[in-house]
Amino acid sequence: MQSVKIASLGFPRIGRKRELKFAQEKYWRGEISRQALFDVAKSLRIQHWQWQAEAGVELLPVGDFAYYDQVLTLSATIGAIPDRHRGSEQVDLDTLFRVARGRAPTGEEAPAAEMTKYFNTNYHYIVPELSPAQTFSIAYEQLFEEVEEAVALGYKVKPVLLGPVSYLYLAKAQGEEFDCLSLLDNLVAVYQAILARFAAQGVEWVQLDEPILALALEPQWTQAFESAYQTLSHSKPKLLLASYYGSIAHHQPLVSALPVAGLHLDLVAAPEQLPLFAAQLSQDQVLSLGVINGRNVWAAQLDDIADNLSAVVKDFADRIWIAPSCSLLHCPVDLDCEQQLAPSLRDQLAFAKQKLTELAQLKLLLTSPDSESAKQIIGTCIERRNARSQAANKQVQQRVASLCPQDYERQHAFAYRQAAQQQRFKLPLLPTTTIGSFPQTPAIRGLRNRWRLAEITQAQYTAQLKAVTQDTIERQLKLGIDVLVHGEAERNDMVEYFGEQLQGFGFTQFGWVQSYGSRCVKPPLIYGDVSRKGPMTLEWAEYAQSLTDKPVKGMLTGPVTILHWSFAREDISRDTIATQIALAIRDEVVDLQEAGIGIIQIDEPAFREGLPLKRSDWQHYLDWAVAAFKLSAAGVRDDTQIHTHMCYSEFNETIAAIAAMDADVITIETSRSRMELLNAFEDFEYPNEIGPGVYDIHSPNIPSVEQMVSLMEKAASKVPVQQLWVNPDCGLKTRTWEEVEPALKNLVTATKSLRRSL
Ligand code: GLN
Ligand code: ZN
Question: Which positions bind 5-methyltetrahydropteroyltri-L-glutamate (predicted)?
Fold first, then answer.
């Protein structure tokens, strides 16, 4: 019998009921001791190791647990702590929290380090700050203590660390410009020291993650791989080089030549890599096959996976590991917690814990395919597929199939529409508007909680929200804003709100995934064909518009954003799902127009986030994402004005696609970059209207009239003033009215003074 091993690249750390989050936050508030936080953390680690061991994972990951972020733990381990967070004492837990959050129960406050998304995931890591004089030495013991802890429980472990080349790639040079790669030799030396410590603890394998291999790399970075791994190969523990999130086939000659004992491939993101790397596997190398999707919640098609792997398992027998595609960090923890899911949906799902069971089942399919249990597993796979195909909504599928090119285009080109819209709305030069949400006050959130708990009736809830909406409209009228919004008081979240009203979406109770630190998100599930049950926003838009003669924007979330911020089904393509959502949004857009709403905004803040890791794959994504947006918007007359909004964006390389979306007005986040982001629009001679944000809503500071005038003057030096709008960077839901009112008052004053001077 062949001996395939089950491997794990990491397990979610938050706990099935977010125990870690609650303990962290209590510790930060000073409500529990450090020891109490350590105790919660330890019991989580023990639980997670136990689940993995029970599933048959032989080498348990250590280093996947973190009190904030695993990249930050590594920075602390190697002593890469910014001076401002260091304090006089040695590196400890509070040092980590000061780096991550700017403050901790002990030590001086100092601005937090930067945080950014980990590759194309929604997980955020703390960006290491490195200076030319950076030295490295082991400065923090957490990793070694956790190895000790697991070993004491009788487990064999495989520590997991971000590899040295990816670490430098993700780091940011501090102060003067310098090449982080100049630190490579020193960094590799501290990795050697770490590996030696692990060896002394009896560790046989260490996993080094090098996710940058999925990117196209400049020659100096590929050389860095050669030199770093040459040196590290002399260390005692065997090295498993792990890649994930994409294909590394473009680096195959480099990777196959690296002196490592094992290689992990993400075969969910890029199954085509397998034959390429298998053919080059050297005699004593292990191949870890990432075949269970670590980034989604759907049960795996184990029968198909087993078929695809049977040849390679035969060829390499005991050198094959089967594993999730990447760390399970991006998955919710335990499906067993879900008590309210429809059984038919639940049967289609696997969270992190269930994915471990899938690995055990896959091993069985590979090693004893003729057993009774194997037949049962295959039977379940077939049942699942049948259930899915029966749940299809033929009408939706037909509507998608019968779309034609005109469905994606407005009736006339922008210049013509612009004239019609000017005629209709008669807006002043530099119209003022906001992005949609107004403060979600504790009163509003309390109201929603009482409604969810059925302590107030639907009618009471609606009546109170209407009062909030009315107040929001009155405040905007008093401020003198030109194009109003209703304020989104009724929305908990810009995706969940729509998901709850669309067919084909499901919601979990505990399907949380860590986003950063103690922050978790609970993405909806898109399990079926998506369609609109009925109007979703119409009542609010109509009510708000009934209160004023000024235009009130209808406010919708776009198809690309709804898709990216959900766990989408895998049996049809993402572009088909986006098209289905686009049709549902399109129907809402048309309903809004028919109800007299003349300006409609379709938000796409996650548009850029969906870009594939490799440039060569961008165009395909941009083509379907732009098409989905256009489809959602194009059902309206020329004199209906379509807005879109994007934040977290950098437009240099995508400006042609942004222009192709053909929104009449786009509002973007620009105040932090002091209008630098407008350069792309200037160079491209972007033809439609633009509202570059002049108010940084992420800061509690109130921007002055002068600051906003100067930003708008800068904008007007790049884009003809007739094309410009004046607005904040993003929605105002996280701010208070005490901040928002004076800020918007200044925004209107700034605009009026500009109108006079131009
Ligand atoms: N309309 C949304 C709001 O104002 C947009 C949010 C976003 O861009 N993330 O809250
Ligand atoms: Zn935004």
Answer: 18-21, 117, 519-520, 565, 609
Contacts of 551 (CB under 8 A, 6+ apart): 425, 482, 483, 484, 545, 598, 599
519 is in an annotated binding site: yes
| pLDDT tens digits along 585-595 | 999 999 999 99
Question: What pLDDT, on the 0 to 100 scale, is given for residue 698?
Answer: 85
Ligand 1 nearest atom to the CA of residue 645, by list position:
8
Shortest-distance Cα residue to atom 3 of ligand 1: 731
Taking CB atoms within 8 Å and a gap of at least 24, the contacts of 383-390 are: 383/347, 384/299, 384/347, 384/348, 385/301, 387/344, 387/347, 387/348, 388/348, 388/571
Q: What is the pLDDT of residues 371-393, one digit of tens each?
A: 999 999 999 999 999 999 888 99
pTM of the entire structure?
0.94
The helix (run of H) or strand (run of E) holding residue 168 is helix 164-170
Beta strand 172-173 pairing with 156-162: unpaired
Beta carbons of 264 and 270 less than 8 angstroms apart = no
Q: Which atom of ligand 1 is nearest to the CA of 555?
A: 1
Q: Residue 599 forms beta bridges with which residues? A: 641
Q: How many CB atoms lie within 10 A of CB 39?
A: 13
Q: Which residues line ligand 1 (CB under 6 A)?
A: 435-437, 488, 494, 555, 603, 605, 645, 647, 730-731, 733
Take residue 235 and report the two structure tokens written for it.
Answer: 């260390």
- In angstroms, what is the C-alpha Rg of the chain? 27
Q: In testing the pocket of ligand 1, which one of 492, 493, 498, 730 has its CB within 8 Å of the most ligand atoms?
A: 730
pLDDT of residue 699: 86
First-last CA distance in the chain? 82
Query: pLDDT at position 200, please?
Result: 98
pLDDT at 1: 47
> Which pLDDT score, from 0 to 100, does residue 2 have?
58
Phi first, then psi: what are they for 103, rounded to 5°? -155, 160
**Long-range own/partner contacts, residues 108-117 (CB < 8 A, 24 or more apart):** 110/82, 110/84, 110/85, 111/84, 113/82, 113/85, 114/172, 115/516, 117/609
Rounded to 5°, the CA angle 148-151-154 comes to 155
ipTM value, please give it: 0.99
CA atoms of 564 and 609, how far apart (whole Å): 8
437 annotated to a ligand binding site? yes
Which residues are designated catalytic? 698
The pair of three-digit structure tokens given for residue 51, joined into one six-digit string: 């689940």
Nearest to 236 by CA among 202, 196, 190: 196
**Cα(752)–Cα(708) distance, integer angstroms:** 11
Q: ∠ CA(197), CA(199), CA(205), 5° rounding?
A: 120
The SS3 assignment for 203 reads: coil
Averages of pLDDT over runs of 10 residues in the chain (758 residues) are 87 98 97 98 98 98 98 98 88 96 92 90 94 95 98 98 98 86 97 98 98 97 98 97 97 98 98 97 96 98 97 92 98 97 96 98 96 98 93 95 98 98 98 98 96 96 98 98 98 95 96 95 96 98 98 98 97 97 98 98 94 94 98 98 90 95 97 90 97 92 96 97 97 96 98 94
Q: CA 643, CA 641: separation in Å to the nearest integer?
A: 7
Say how many C-beta atoms besides its own lie within 10 A of residue 652's C-beta.
Answer: 11
Closest CA to 664 of 692, 642, 639: 642
The DSSP code sequence of 301-357 is: -HHHHHHHHHHHHHHHGGGEEEEESS-GGGS-S-GGG--SS-HHHHTTB--HHHHHH
Angle between helices 705-716 and 737-757 (to 10 degrees): 50
Q: Which of 122, 433, 434, 437 to mutate to test the pocket of ligand 1 (most atoms within 8 A of CB)?
A: 437
